[in-house]
Amino acid sequence: METLIQQLINGLVIGSVYALIALGYTMVYGILGLINFAHGDVLMVGALTALQTMMFLMGVAPGMSPVYMLTIALMVAIPVCITLGFLMERLAYRRLRNAPRLAPLITAIGMSFLLQTVAMILWGRNYHTFPQLISTTPMQPIEGVFITPVQVIIIAASAAIMIGLSLLVTRTRIGRAMRATAENHRVASLMGVDTNAVIAFTFVVGAALAAVAGVMYASNYGIAHYGMGFMPGLKAFTAAVLGGIGNLGGAMLGGIMLGLVESFGAGYIEHLTFGFLNSSYQDIFAFIILGLVLIFKPTGLLGERVSDRA
To answer: For residue 246, what are the CA distances in angstroms to 58, 129, 133, 216?
Structure first.
């Protein structure tokens, strides 16, 4: 029972991060029908920018409170990623809106390689230790079950962000504009909606979520690297497909479910395969789920709330 609860906690932590990243994928797809494969690399830029900011602050103000230092690092990483997301939409994707679907897909993959290469030039090939500004001393709420303050903050912050995003989309004027653009951007434009601004705003929000997820991911694992965004991005895409890409609730559900499946799989894979595989093979669960969903329920668990565009 202790192992079961421990894996549940671990799954909720990593699933919360996957959900935040998946929201960026699903918002862009819902409005443009575009899979932005460079989204995971925005996460990487956010983590490395936060790392660079913290290293600078440690040099100029070594006595600064860890909470203030992490907050400042986030406040620097988020605008950097927002700017990056805006430039990606403006320079790379806007001209391809009416192009065949293969063109923006190839462009997104190219943007991913470009961001990784630039990050490698700026930060090098080596793995960087991400400062543990918040205590990582495990707490033991139940005998044999451990959770760190960092993990508690990740779960709580992710829940708050997801609730806030849901309210933004359903209760605000810009949210109505986003839903109208997702339904039919040509009709929305005729009704007075500035679709260019709405699409740019969608990329900006997705990039901000990726920045926060990047700092969470690096804080949880204690490392940052120029290639760190690829695998979380791929798994978040799987989560978006699992929940129903284009559906915000589906992205949240898919992220949490994928995190739980991956965590339970890592905990029990050795028993299930009679010692043939161990926890280092936990990544296979994401791709098994992706394959099964694409074969048996391509629209995902909650269906796709995106109308077909002529």
So the answer is: 41, 35, 36, 24
